[in-house]
Amino acid sequence: METVSSAYTVELLVANRYGALNRITGIYARRGYNIDSLNMITDNPDVYRIIISSKGDEYARTQVVRQLSKLYDIKEVKLV
Amino acid sequence: MSTAKLSGAQIVIEQLVRHGATTVFGYPGGSVLPIYDALYQNADRIKHIITAHEQGAAHAADGYARVSGKVGVVIATSGPGATNLVTGIANAYLDSVPLVAITGNAPVPLLGRDAFQEVDIVGITQPIVKHNFVVRDISDLESTFAEAFAIADSGRKGPVLVDIPKNIQEAMCEYGGKIADAPAPREIVEVTDNAIDAAITAIMNAKRPFIYAGGGVIAAEACTLLQTFAELISAPVGFSLMGLTALPHSHPLALGMCGMHGKYAATVAKSECDVMIALGVRFSDRATGNIEIYKQNKTIVHVDIDMAELAKNVAPNIEICGDVKSVLQRMIPQLSAVRNQDWVDRIAELKSKCGELNQVGEFTPQRVIETVGDKLGGDAVIATDVGQHQMWTMQYYPFKAPRTFLTSGGLGTMGYGMGAAIGGCVANGRKRTILFTGDGSFGMNLNELVTAVSQNLPLVIIIVNNGVLGMVRQWQKRFYEQRYSQTTLNRKTDFVALAEAFGAKGFRAENIVELNSILKHLPSEGPVVIDCHVCMDEEVLPMIPPGKAVDDMITTKFDMEVAN
User: Fold this and answer.
1) Phi (first) and psi of residue B445, to 5 degrees
2) Checking DSSP bridges between strand B299-304 and strand B275-279, what pairing results, if any?
3) CB spacing of A19 vs B123 below 8 angstroms
4) B190 in contact with chain A, both atoms CB, cutoff 8 A
5) Which residues of chain A fall below pLDDT 50?
6) A37 vs chain B: nearest CA distance in angstroms?
7) Residue B26 belongs to what H/E stretch?
8) What is the pLDDT of residue B354?
9) Active site residue B363
10) Lesser CB count within 10 Å: N end or C end of chain B?
11) ipTM over 0.90
12) Is position B296 annotated as part of the catalytic site?
């Protein structure tokens, strides 16, 4: 497995509920992955689009995507 | 037709009944008064068991869920009631036990103002639940419960917390009819034919196949399929602590637990296999030791319902995301019977060596556990606390059926046992239930004796009393040059008198004859405490030191003279 750290971005569709952002950043924080940038597109009041850039190797990327996919408030996770 | 208007508290009751939660555990308080009032009025529909402490209630709901296979329910008030649940919720999370925890909270207008007994329990529990909710609008209450039960009991099971502010419990709302049950939460299950084909090819070409079975086998109700699968390919089976009862202890292919304190044959066979089929396990550090050595020279097929477990700790060669039952159902018809005699012989050799290592002396903890197993065995539910006695129970108790072993695996919670035994006993028709505990662990939550007494539960509580925190002492002996820091207890507790003071029966055993006699004359109802005085220097063996591998396995007793 490739272990070189590089920048990557995930795009999430998230139900607009209290604390959803907290749950998302919690996944990064627990493993000690820094968030470089976070953008939120809120034109749909029910489902927000959140775009997060971070750095990590292939293991980190896979884990982040799979852990985020387990969050109940998250409707879709894409590695872009 | 108009639908009835109910209070929030009545909606809670209706939703509990609708989801089959007819036995719940909890402790009342200011912020759940409306729910407890509704419980009072619905005592014929829901049995509520009050414990001594909310932690005990959470462990009881956990034990109830493990035995019954249903979702356990625990109720606590806001503030300290809610925070007292935290260890129990974390315990359920680490062991994938379906649980719905209901907490009260300050009324919505007071949330965030540090009101009396207000804590942000949703924030506190966020990393240790599958999901949690604050119900801020009464019209969300019904659907929230449907979601909570669906989340707890689907996919990889686990705890869900529902925090209900007091004014929401009092508010009135239409109930029923308008809201259907929430859809099952989205699960990621992508079992492709390619993955199944690859697994089958690997298994059919294996010279030395080995099955590593975990809690996922039991959660998926796949124990019978596991047995069929193992027998078909003549593969020995090693277990994680959570999977230990997936096959009967006496099954010829069952080698016992793998890992740090696993059985010799299981751990060695696992290291020697060429294909490992890992079913519903998460490759915890206690199970693997050094990961690089662990995965050497073998093809690993990992089946788990939780996609995030695949390649989290050990990168498998073939990963299959799906529940163990449906995957085995697809694989078994495509496999033909195979048997490699050399491997079968090697396993027999390892098992006989295992037998030699396990010879035990007179009134040792291991002998206590074996004796209780012989005398009371049958199909009793067994609970443990955490430490040496837990590992000896895993090694020596002759388990016969799934859902009979309640133990804290992932979190390693000392104090889990009393609550778990209570919940397990209730779930098992209040039949005789055995708790193996240590004097250290028992000290943590022995207050729950009050619950066992008030419920008149036939618990047999075996205290493996060595006067020390044995597992920590063992590590201090091996790795800290016998500096026994804070592990020699000097407590002088009279557990017989203590049991009697609580209204239970108490006995003391200093040798095997006394223990046999006590077990022979056990009262048929109510809790019994048997204080077994054993040597403090017995060690849990074999042992693979943390981060080490099978070649570093310690199989002989610590020799003080050699060490000094």
Assistant:
1) -135, 35
2) parallel
3) yes
4) no
5) none
6) 22
7) strand B23-26
8) 73
9) no
10) N
11) yes
12) no
Rounded to whole angstroms, the Cα distance separating B177 from B154 reads: 24
Under a CB-based contact definition with an 8 Å cutoff, are residues B220 and B157 in contact?
A: no
pLDDT at B4: 80
Pick from A66, A69, A75, A76 the residue to mutate for testing the B interface (most B CBs within 10 Å): A66
Max CA distance (Å), chain A: 40
Tell me whether residue B388 is one of the annotated catalytic residues.
no
Q: Which two tokens stand for residue B262?
A: 């696993």
Contacts (Cβ under 8 Å, ≥6 apart) of B524: B458
- What are the tokens at B355? 């037998």
Q: Is B25 helix (H, G, I), strand (E, B) or coil?
A: strand
What is the rounded CA–CA span in Å between residue B215 and residue B97?
Answer: 10
| pLDDT score, position B177 | 60
Cα gap B503→B524, rounded to integer Å: 15
Structural contact between residues B28 and B36, judged by C-beta atoms closer than 8 angstroms = yes
Catalytically annotated residue among B166, B325, B477, B505: B166
Q: How far is CA A20 from CA A10, A44, B93, B113, in A?
A: 16, 15, 19, 21
Indicate which of A72, A75, A79 best probes the interface with B, i.e. most B CBs within 10 Å of its own CB. A72
- Which B residues 103-162 touch A at CB under 8 Å? 122-123, 126-127, 130-131, 134, 136, 147, 151
Check B41, B116, B172, B560 and give the catalytic one.
B116
Which helix (H) or strand (E) segment holds residue B254: the answer is: strand B254-257
Run means of pLDDT, 10 residues per run, chain B, 564 residues:
83 97 98 98 98 98 98 98 98 98 98 96 97 97 95 96 98 78 60 91 97 98 98 98 97 96 95 97 93 93 95 94 95 94 95 71 90 90 98 96 98 98 98 98 98 98 98 96 96 97 98 96 95 94 92 85 64
Question: Which residue's structure tokens are 């109720």?
Answer: B75
Q: Tokens representing B319?
A: 């990963």
Neighbours of B294 (CB within 10 A): 19
Regarding beta strands B237-239 and B254-257, do their DSSP bridges make them parallel or antiparallel, or are they unpaired?
A: parallel
Nearest-Cα distance to chain B for A76, in Å, is 10
In this prediction, residue B1 carries a pLDDT of 44
d(CA B120, CA B451): 29
Per-residue model confidence (pLDDT) at position A4? 86
